[in-house]
Amino acid sequence: MSRTQQGCMAHVRFNKDLKIQFNRDINSVKLSQKSSIIYTQAFVIKRWFNKGMSNNYGEYNMWCCFLQSFNEYFSAEHSRLLSLWRAVVAFRRQFSEMKASTERDISHMRSDVTRAARSMHSACLNLSANERSRDTQLSVQVDRERTERSELEQKLREKTREVLDLQSQYDSRITEINAK
Questions:
Q1: What is the pLDDT of residues 141-166, one digit of tens each?
Q2: How many angstroms separate the CA atoms of 156 and 160, rounded?
Q3: Global pTM?
Q4: pLDDT per residue over 16-45, tens digit each?
Q5: Which of 1, 23, 45, 118 is the most exposed place for a label (fewest CB within 10 A)?
Q6: CA of residue 156 relative to chain centroid, distance
């Protein structure tokens, strides 16, 4: 027997108990009241109640069963909605954790890239400075060699003149000696 059927049966038992209690109350009114007016009113109420109960008893039971099944449906839907909400909350928490982890990883990567860029920049600056220094040293060396070459050429010219002068003096002396 389902929960809905058990609930409907409980309503039927309750209604029967209610009808029995009402009959007892009416009978006690008959005994305790001697006035015919009160007895007549109680009888009319009893007839009306019995007539209403018998006419609407099926509708009332159907209504009770409908309410019971609606309550079960509502409870089941509430449970489903609550589990869905829990899933949404869990998803949001996981998404937030993943977002924080991703942001942290991106931050680490950004700092690594920045560090590598700085290292590359300083290496380029060092290379440029070394190239300039080498260029400067080479230009100084070339200038020094030019200067030395020009000095040596000057000395060579002077020595060549001296040799030519000495040759001419030697020739002139040999000519004088041969002339004597």
A1: 999 999 999 999 999 999 999 889 88
A2: 6
A3: 0.41
A4: 555 565 555 555 544 444 445 555 555 555
A5: 1
A6: 84
Q: Which contacts (CB < 8 Å, 24+ apart) does range 128-135 have?
A: none
Selection from 48, 84, 67, 50 nearest residue 8 by Cα: 67
Rg for the chain (alpha carbons), in Å? Answer: 63
C-alpha 74/C-alpha 165 separation (Å) is 133
Question: 8-21 burial by CB neighbour count: b if 16+ within 10 A, else e?
Answer: beebeeeeeeeeee
Our CA angle for 20, 23, 27, nearest 5°, is 140
Residue with tokens 């869990």: 90
SS3 96: helix
